[in-house]
Records
---
Amino acid sequence: MEAGVFECHREEETVDTESFQGKKQKIIQPTSLKDPKLEKLKEVLVYWINSTLKPEHIVVQNLEEDLYDGLVLHHLLSRLAGVHLPVEEIVLTSTAQIHKLEVILEELDKRLGLQDSSRIKWSVKLIHNKDLLATIHLLVAMVRCFQPELDLPLNVEVQVVVVEVTKSGIKSDVQTEVLTEARDAGSDSLSNTEREDPIEQLLKLEAHKVNTVKKAILHFVNQNMSTMGLQVADMDKQFADGVILLLLIGQLEGFFIPLHDFNLTPVNPSEMLHNVTLALDLLNDTGLQMSSVDPQDIVSQDVAATLKVLYALFKKHKGK
């Protein structure tokens, strides 16, 4: 009786390999899935999607799980390229999801300038099957096309196992898959200094040069805060609780931030972090992408982080 059960299971597990012949599949090695660079890239992409789609009240937590049905990609295409496709907003069946992805990816490939199918590293099937590798390739291409100023982690690579079914059996090979280049495409001729963040460059200069720039930004800040009767004397410390930063953003962008949305007199790090996070979210909403700045760094009085935010505001509004 036991032998019969065993034979039954063997019969059920028989696979028709002919239908898979000639097809390749790439699987990320488990060790690469834990690579800090890959984790950082995923975090930046999630943050980018959520900041882009915040007006739509769409929140993504997991790249593979949240993009497979086409809803998020549909909204991204609409927000980034102003394209409104004749597809249903929400589709529940697998067939409808695949059809929706076909329409979206066809339009996206055109927008990305990828008529040559050999250069496309994603497909409807891969995205719908929640393939992380294909999903990241697609999102990176979208960032490079629609928002090239966004700082993605450079030189992100993963080890993948390429599995191919042939008539003689299954072949496998380990390869390196590049997700982001060591430098942005088209910037090969630039020196490391020219590619570096301007604030990072500034902080490597002599102290008097750094102070000159800080004084110019401080003058700009106080010019705009004077109408509120506020004065900033210590740039390194007075932005740490987020209050003046929020008031400055409201003043420059011309909108009022309701007092109940933030802590006007924060008394602990948690309230400070809430204020600074809100400030950076507002900047993202106005088009100033601050994905490279961690709110906690500003609360911790990190000079570089504070300067990056103020410099971005200074560049945008100095001529007004």
---
Amino acid sequence: MDKQRLKNAEDDKRSDQIPFTDTSMSIEVDAFKLYTLELYYLVREEIKAACYHTSMPDITRDNEHRYFKVKDDLLHDKIFEVSVRLSDNYVQCNCKFFFQRGYLCKHAFAALHQCGVKQIPREFVKPRWTKNALKRHSFLGSSQVDALFEKRDKKKLKRTRAWFEFHNCMNHAEEDEEKLDSVITGLQTIASSITKDSDNNMDQGNAERVDKFIGPIPDTEISVQIPHVSRNKGSGSRIKSSREIAIEAGKRRTCSRCKLAAGHNARSCPLNKECT
């Protein structure tokens, strides 16, 4: 325990120290103010690579964005496409480094430096990597990221935060009886305000309560008619080819007098009548 306590104290002391910056970019100082010391060293390597190992052969822009083609010397002069939105400095790079590591890549830092940005856009700062993660954020995420969530995800996030705040209050109360009483009183007050409207609707039937989960029940009964029987094995008849017709005609018995397969024999042949 003493060893762990001394190590934590040493880490806190090291986090307050300001290391020497390797570049003249103001964004590097901002990175140190935001990130923990360990992650700052990783971000600093990306900033250094943005200064010394990248170049921009092509730069274009429109009314809302600036587009850069960044050549990376460390990756055999591979070209990466970076865009920066001018309104809020939102940067995107096709290397997808941020989604893999959680901090910006050297191509993004090079593009931000070219645009004169002196601070890292806060939507690209993960709360878990910041120095004050325990003071300002919980493990549930930052309030700045809420705008990126859909409506359904926001409800789920708020529900989880409510559980987190409740457990956090219980952890702070510990075994103090007065604090536990204040927690109980607060919960009762919140419960009374929440259930005030629901008490007026206690006479609802089971069907109406189920409607909230599975949807309303139709008023009229829907009768399903018996469908017509359909055949999926064919109609039973098909068009015969000329070859098949000829083969079937060749199998019939022919008349010995007229040599025709007309379904008669020599006795009933029409030629007999002609002869008579």
